[in-house]
Specification:
globular; alpha+beta; four-stranded antiparallel β-sheet
Length: 292
């Protein structure tokens, strides 16, 4: 499947910004046997005085930009063509929870895909007793790791309401869990916290959803902006799988990966510091166009 993606993020400042430094993570990543970045560019208006393109620890493309001159608006644009390959869902070879710790312990690697990075608390995801109890209530005897993750995904989709006005980017998993409302970031954070409480390595995936659904299918929630879903480790045989709790589906040809991390803080589209005061407005526009 081939897509053209257009993203525009606009920051309008109440008072001109006299300087700023940002890290931008919006360009899709190339992943073996999953997706390939055919071509892609990230541009900024105004043009930054300094720019560095690199990859972070989790191999996510990152652009560091520095501004010294005053500016009233910042526009970040990303254009890309990406090719996705279908991921066949094989038989479930994941272990049950009783045998899972030994499988995790057998992994000696500490590279970016090591399950050890995705087991404990992370900057935005502390342990939460209420979410842990919620996860335990879903688990049944003899369930495999994949069955547990699928059941938690289905339950969150059923119990939570997609509501863009209910939360903000700073809403914690505990707050979203109490509300039972939110957006893809909230659904994803709650599911990651639930899986980790059971000893299942789980991480955050930032990306895009196709804007135009296939004929006869409904449009997926979250297609108007950058999207988020969950990756979880199913053991040394099955490896990493991805579930989208916002839409209660496995990630497939509709899901385009920008980056992986422990939580949102590792893959936030734009982070940084400014020299200014007053408020600012942010607008985001996304088009994911499937090509014939």
């Amino acid at each position: 499947m081939l897509y053209d993606i257009n993203l525009r993020i606009t920051y309008t400042y109440e008072v001109p910004v006299s300087g700023g430094r940002h890290i931008v993570r919006v360009l899709p990543v190339s992943l073996p046997e999953r997706q390939r970045l055919v071509a892609g560019t990230v541009t900024c208006t105004p043009t930054p005085e300094e720019r560095t393109d690199t990859t972070d620890f989790f191999a996510n493309p990152s652009t560091s930009i520095l501004f010294r001159k005053p500016h009233e608006k910042l526009v970040i644009r990303m254009q890309a063509r990406i090719q996705l390959d279908a991921q066949p869902l094989t038989a479930d070879f994941s272990p049950d929870l009783a045998g899972f710790p030994a499988d995790i312990a057998s992994v000696w690697s500490l590279d970016a895909n090591s399950p050890h990075h995705f087991l404990g608390s992370s900057p935005r995801l502390p342990e939460d007793p209420a979410i842990s109890a919620y996860a335990r209530s879903i688990v049944e005897p003899d369930m495999t790791v994949r069955q547990i993750a699928t059941a938690i995904c289905e339950r969150i989709h059923k119990d939570f309401t997609y509501d863009p006005k209910a939360t903000t980017v700073d809403t914690t998993p505990r707050e979203a869990f109490k509300l039972k409302r939110g957006v893809c970031q909230d659904f994803t954070h709650v599911m990651i916290t639930a899986l980790r409480s059971l000893g299942i390595p789980a991480g955050y995936v930032s990306g895009f959803l196709r804007t135009i659904p296939p004929p006869g299918k409904e449009r997926l929630e979250g297609a108007d902006a950058m999207h988020a879903w969950v990756r979880f480790w199913c053991g040394s045989t099955s490896g990493w799988l991805e579930l989208d709790p916002t839409n209660n589906i496995f990630a497939g040809l509709d899901h385009i990966v920008v980056g992986h991390g422990r939580d949102y803080s590792d893959v936030a589209p734009v982070i940084g510091v400014l020299k200014s005061y007053g408020s600012h407005k942010t607008e985001q526009a996304v088009d994911v166009i499937p090509l014939q």
